[in-house]
Automatic annotation (TrEMBL):
Pfam families registered for this protein in UniProt: Glycos_transf_2 (PF00535)
Cited SUPFAM superfamilies: Nucleotide-diphospho-sugar transferases
An example Gene Ontology CC term for this record: Golgi apparatus
Any GO molecular function: polypeptide N-acetylgalactosaminyltransferase activity
Alphabetical GO biological process terms: protein O-linked glycosylation
Keyword vocabulary terms for this entry: Disulfide bond, Membrane, Transmembrane, Transmembrane helix
Top-level division of the source organism's lineage: Eukaryota
Residue stretches spanning the membrane: 9-31
Protein name listed in UniProt: Glycosyltransferase 2-like domain-containing protein
Organism taxonomic ancestry: Eukaryota, Metazoa, Chordata, Craniata, Vertebrata
InterPro entries in alphabetical order: Glyco_trans_2-like, Nucleotide-diphossugar_trans
Every Glycosyltransferase 2-like domain range: 159-304
């Protein structure tokens, strides 16, 4: 009996030691694997070059290259933006800013400091914007075939809504001026300004003076909606929609410039089918020089992370061989135009959204006939962030 107990004890001890040995071996193998992974550099597999059918001029590649450049600019701007207590250090290094890569070499040191501070505040060259005409001319970037199209006179009227918070006053006013100057007067019923609780003093008294002066000549033409607290982009758009009275509502950022002939093709598409949600074709206002950068025609979609993306137009559009034709898109990026009552019928936008971006995908899901990229008219968007 004593021998049996000792045997059991010995066996138990061997089992315990064996288990501990296995654990130690696993730890050692894990450490070695981690050590090798940290020492040796993984060489990524090269991605196959993509060429989409119908993309004869490489428009997709140009879109991707421009987006890559835009991402680099944003990242550099984030690195340049000073935190609290770092303004003096930023002033000393203003000559290294991307703002002055293609502009401002003739400015005095003091003016460069002013320009840099405005750039860090707005995300674009507010210093230059303040010195440009509010009615500056822009080139007609429409495809040639679009300029010869005619439209019926009985198109529905549109309410243009501008959403902003702490926008540069000159950029906002230029958006308004271009909307008035380049939209036929019989089609533009009103402009609605939604201020999402800006703290910029210029957007209070000076903006109100402009609104009052305009309304003295055209009573009720510009409506102001001011939020008592910051609501965010989604709820601001819904606020603008609630204030609109025209049959069609156009929801835009407040840093755009409208081009000639932007409204008629969009309003005609909606008149033909009120369930269409339309995005104009966009070109780019360079954040540093405010020069116009023409973008190729594209569809608008999203990736698996639900980030919005410019896409090569579908095969069906290329096969039409007609650049005046609209481009169907699964999503909309940013600004869009919609029948006012139909927008309510599909539930507007989800006012529970706290961060912008998801509404672009949401609209594609809500509406089964979303149409983007109206190629016969367009706007020019100032890329700031």
């Amino acid at each position: 009996m004593a021998c049996t107990r000792r045997t059991k004890t010995l066996v138990s001890t061997c089992v315990i030691l064996s288990g501990m040995t296995n654990i130690v071996c696993l730890l050692y193998v894990g450490w070695v694997t981690n050590y090798i992974a940290n020492i040796y550099i993984k060489v990524p597999m090269p991605l196959p070059e993509r060429k989409l059918e119908g993309d004869k001029r490489g428009d997709t590649l140009r879109i991707m290259e421009r987006l890559d450049r835009l991402e680099n600019v944003v990242n550099q701007h984030i690195q340049e933006t000073p935190g609290r207590g770092e303004e003096s250090q930023a002033d000393k290094s203003f000559s290294d800013s991307s703002l002055f890569a293609h502009w401002g070499q003739d400015l005095s040191p003091e003016n460069r400091r002013v320009a840099l501070k405005m750039f860090q505040y707005y995300g674009y060259n507010g210093y230059l914007s303040d010195r440009l005409s509010l009615d500056r001319p822009t080139s007609d970037l429409r495809p040639e075939g679009c300029r010869n199209l005619t439209y019926p006179l009985n198109l529905p009227q549109v309410s243009i809504v501008f959403i902003f918070v702490n926008e540069a006053l000159s950029v906002l006013l230029r958006s308004i001026h271009s909307a008035i100057n380049r939209t036929p007067s019989h089609l533009l019923k009103e402009i609605i300004l939604v201020d999402d609780n800006s703290s910029n003093d210029e957007l209070k008294e000076k903006l109100q003076d402009f609104v009052s002066e305009t309304n003295s000549q055209h009573p009720g033409f510009i409506k102001m909606v001011r939020h008592a607290k910051q609501e965010g982009l989604i709820r601001s758009r819904v606020s603008g929609w609630r204030a609109a009275t025209a049959p069609v509502v156009a929801l835009f950022d407040a840093h755009v410039e409208f081009n000639v002939g932007w409204a008629e093709p969009i309003l005609q598409r909606i008149q033909e089918d009120r369930t269409r949600i339309i995005s104009p074709s966009f070109d780019n206002i360079k954040y540093d020089t405010f020069e116009i950068d023409e973008y190729p025609l594209s569809a608008q979609g999203f990736d698996w992370e639900l980030w919005c993306r410019y896409l090569n137009p579908p095969k069906s559009w290329w096969h039409k061989d007609n650049k005046t034709a609209p481009i169907q898109s699964p999503a909309l990026i940013g600004c869009f135009v919609v029948d006012r009552l139909y927008f309510e019928e599909i539930g507007l936008l989800d006012e529970g959204m706290e961060v912008y971006g998801g509404e672009n995908v949401e609209l594609g899901i809500r509406s089964s006939s979303t149409t983007g990229g109206s190629t016969t008219g367009g706007t020019i968007l100032l890329r700031d962030r």
